[in-house]
Amino acid sequence: MIDKRLENLATILTKYSLNLQKNDLFRISGSYLAAPLIQEVYRQAVKIGAHPFTHIGIDGLAESYYQHATNQQLKYVSPLSKFEIEQIDASLAILSPENTRNMTNIDPKKQAISNSAHHELHEIFNKRAAQKELRWCVTQYPTQAQAQDAEMSLTDYEKFIFDAAHVNAKDPIKYWQTVHKEQEKIRRMLATKKTIHVYAKDTDLSVSVTDRIWINCSGKENFPDGEVFTGPVENATEGHISYSFPDSYNGREVNDIQLWFKKGVVVKAEASKGKEFLNAMLDTDPGARRLGEFAFGTNYGVKRFTKNTLFDEKIGGTIHLAVGSGFPETHSKNISSLHWDMVCDLRKNGEVYADNELIYKNGRFINL
After folding, report:
1. 126 torsion bin: left (phi>0), alpha (psi -120 to 50), beta (else)
2. Could you tell me what percent of the chain has a pLDDT over 90?
3. Do 227 and 216 form a contact (C-beta atoms < 8 A)?
4. 273 in helix, strand or coil?
5. Quick one: 187 and 278 in the same domain?
6. pLDDT average, residue stretch 223-235
7. Are 342 and 289 part of one and the same domain?
8. Which of 165, 199, 215 is the last residue in one of the domains?
9. Are 42 and 144 found together in one domain?
């Protein structure tokens, strides 16, 4: 018998997040550990009249690839992958790792080569999404690996995920529609601003958002969700920022990240762990050292850090900034094969000013 929580989650994903329609070509990807959710999403997609297909991953394949691939192989881009991205109407990625540390000992330069080679695919995906030709969503299926990272039992981690998603609400879809309405107040206020200045521990950062579009995220592209974001002006970020939580990218953990910006470019990057990897990723391409995203986390139901960016960047009272590619729908012009979200906690002694006016203090918007 299907877990009622999974059934509700699949309903939200297909009918709300992706708004799946009859005849949609629908890609579902995830590891074999996510089979219960994949099966339920697939079942509901067929009932809607869509054409679902699956990519089921096995942990360890990426590790084997990077260990043995030649430079020629690292630069190879499958025409099938390109064709798929050009054709699909909807995509659901279900995060469900068996081991979150598979890539720890992989040469970061190899990862950078592969990331750069696949840049065109990212651009096609982002362009189609911005033009409303492709609907996409990333969600999470609870696994032992991520429960361990979060220092929880699997049972507690399952509850954490389903509570954050509000799958047990009387009407979960209506709940997320209400979230959208509430966040519109934030989006409308931010839409009138030109400059954002962040002050926190070891942080003094100015970001220009002149003529950029702010996006209200309420369960469409990420689920669960809770953020309002934009793409900063590429050449105008100044100052420095210290990120509060350990971060990870491609399975590599990096701790105590600090970045210094001048004229929009990261001119210095430090970390107590993973500094070499951090700088290798920032050297992926010219756009990797510029900001592609600035966002406020607005989900106050997510209260604790779990070493999972999907949840950590949504924590109410935090901001996150991504180095690398921006989203065209924000009017971001930054192009990169990298997109790395990093989270800064503002719940204690954090302040944000917009056009020299205090709008945010200790993790909360004021005067909304």
Report:
1. alpha
2. 91
3. no
4. strand
5. yes
6. 97
7. yes
8. 165
9. yes
| Amino acid at the residue 66 | Y
d(CA 126, CA 327): 7
**What residue type is 350 in one-letter code?**
G
Q: Which amino acid is at 328?
A: P
Residue 104 has pLDDT above 90, yes or no: no
The Cα 193–Cα 331 span in angstroms is 15
Residue with token string 């203090």 = 361
How far apart CA 358 and CA 368 sit, in angstroms, is 12
Structural domain that includes position 117? 4-165
Residues 188 and 312 in one domain: yes
Decide if 176 is inside a domain. Answer: no
d(CA 116, CA 132): 25
Q: Please tell me whether residues 28 and 122 are part of one structural domain.
A: yes
Whether 95 and 202 map to the same domain: the answer is no
Contact status, residue 338 vs residue 288, Cβ threshold 8 Å: yes
Could you give the C-alpha distances from 338 to 32, 281, 306, in angstroms and in order? 26, 7, 22
pLDDT of residue 1: 60
Q: Name the nearest CA neighbour of 341 among 313, 308, 299.
A: 313
Bridge partners of 268?
260
The verdict on 143 and 221 lying in the same domain is no
Question: What are 64-81's pLDDT values in tens digits?
Answer: 999 999 999 999 999 999
Residues 110 and 205 in one domain: no
How many structural domains comprise the chain? 2
In the listed set 139, 165, 191, which residue is the last one of a domain according to the structure?
A: 165
The H or E element containing residue 309 is helix 309-312
303 confidence band (pLDDT: 50, 70, 90):
confident
- Per-residue tokens: 145: 């690996």
Q: Is residue 174 part of a domain?
A: no
> What does the pLDDT look like over 110-144, one tens digit per residue?
999 999 999 999 999 999 999 999 999 999 999 99
The pTM assigned to this predicted structure is 0.91
| Amino acid in position 121 | L
